[in-house]
Each structure stands twice: as structure tokens, then as C-alpha cells.
Write a structure and sequence with these properties.
The protein is α/β, with parallel strands linked by helices. The chain is built from seven helices and seven strands, in the order αβαβαββαβαβαβα. The strands form two sheets. The protein has a five-stranded parallel β-sheet, with helices on both faces. Strands 3-4 form a two-stranded antiparallel sheet. The two termini are 20 Å apart.
């Protein structure tokens, strides 16, 4: 379990994340709420909302609220002067649009961000698994694994840094472990957020 692997990271510095922003959907909302309480990721800025998707981000059909204004992801990143961005999106894309269209949209999103924030470092996080008993239609672990494999290749080909945060959350069925599933579906428990935050600290050398 994560306690054995990552416990030493709990008290390591968090300042790496002070100029970082996180973009995500309701999965990242759990991490935001966790960080608000425990500050394991320092003063990171969070732009996340339920049901948000890569499709929303590139078509401006759902906007990010920042400082009382509606913004695109790239506008929000520019406004908060983020030097790095951690993005986790796709849970709300793969069932609706499939893997191909989702990756296509990623290309637009990264280009949009770089146009306004040319110096920013882009970290693409893997999608997280679905509780095996909660899989429904196109939202299943087989498709999520395919999406993540494509996302890793996309990141490498487009100068982004891919971070696999999902594998450590899986159980022997290849789904989200029971102790990490807050609703027997896709949403995360506090323990899952601890694991996630510590993996991030480990990846960036904190």
C-alpha cells in the first residue's frame, strides 16, 4: 500500500507546487478539497468542476471561473501566472467521444495553452480507474487503459510530461480499489487523494 512506499514524502517541501495549477473534473475536485485542508501540494491553484472535459475545454462550452470571470483554461493559466500545469481530464470524454476524438482534442488544448503560456510546463496525468462493479457502457477500465496508453504517447510526442497516477489506485480486477472509491464508481476517498498527492511529490522530486 502507499503508506509503505510514500510515507517519507509527507513532510517534504511543497513549494514546487506554489506556482502550479491543476485543471480537472470532479476527480480533481477531491484533490482540491484534500489540499485545502492538508496543503500537501502547497499553494497550488485549482481549476476544476464537475463533468468538465477536454471537449468543454477546447470548445468553450463550459468555462472556468476565476476571479469572478468566465475564462478558458489558457486564460485562467495566464491570469494566475502558473509556471506549470497538471491536467487530468478524460473521464467525461472517453464514453461520449471515444479515445480517438479525445486525443484529437488534447492536441487542440495543448496548442491553446502554449499560445498564451509559451513557457509553461505541461504535466498530463493519466485517467484514474473505475470501480469494477461501477463500469457502465463506454466508461470502463479497458477503454480507460487504451486512453491512457494513447495519452502517454501523445505526451511524449508533444513535449509534455506524462504522470501515471492511476495504476497505483487499482486492485486485482484492474479497477479502482474499494478503499479508494468513495461511491463505488469513479470518485475518490481521502486515502486515494493522499496516494495521488504523494505520487505527485515523488514524480517531481519533492
Amino acid at each position: 500500500n502507499w503508506q509503505d512506499t510514500y510515507t517519507w514524502l509527507v513532510d517534504t517541501p511543497t513549494d514546487f507546487f506554489d506556482d502550479a495549477a491543476f485543471i480537472g473534473d470532479s476527480i480533481t475536485l477531491a484533490l482540491r478539497n484534500f489540499n485545502t485542508q492538508y496543503k500537501w501540494l502547497g499553494e497550488a491553484t485549482f481549476f476544476c468542476q464537475g463533468s468538465y472535459s477536454v471537449d468543454h475545454a477546447v470548445n468553450n462550452t463550459m468555462m472556468i471561473r476565476f476571479r469572478g470571470q468566465n475564462m478558458t483554461p489558457q486564460e485562467a493559466l495566464a491570469a494566475c501566472e502558473a509556471k506549470k500545469v497538471f491536467i487530468l481530464l478524460g473521464m467525461n470524454d472517453i464514453a461520449l467521444y471515444g479515445v480517438e476524438k479525445s486525443i484529437e482534442n488534447w492536441g487542440i488544448l495543448v496548442a491553446n495553452i502554449r499560445e498564451l503560456c509559451p513557457e509553461i510546463t505541461i504535466y498530463i496525468q493519466s485517467g484514474t480507474p473505475i470501480y469494477t462493479g461501477g463500469q457502465v457502457g463506454g466508461l470502463n477500465n479497458q477503454r480507460m487503459d487504451e486512453y491512457n496508453a494513447r495519452l502517454q504517447v501523445f505526451a511524449e510526442e508533444n513535449g509534455c510530461i506524462y504522470l501515471d497516477v492511476g495504476t497505483a489506485m487499482k486492485d486485482e480486477t484492474n479497477g479502482l480499489a474499494y478503499s479508494y472509491a468513495s461511491d463505488n464508481y469513479v470518485h475518490l476517498t481521502k486515502s486515494a487523494c493522499e496516494l495521488w498527492a504523494l505520487q505527485l511529490k515523488n514524480y517531481v522530486g519533492q
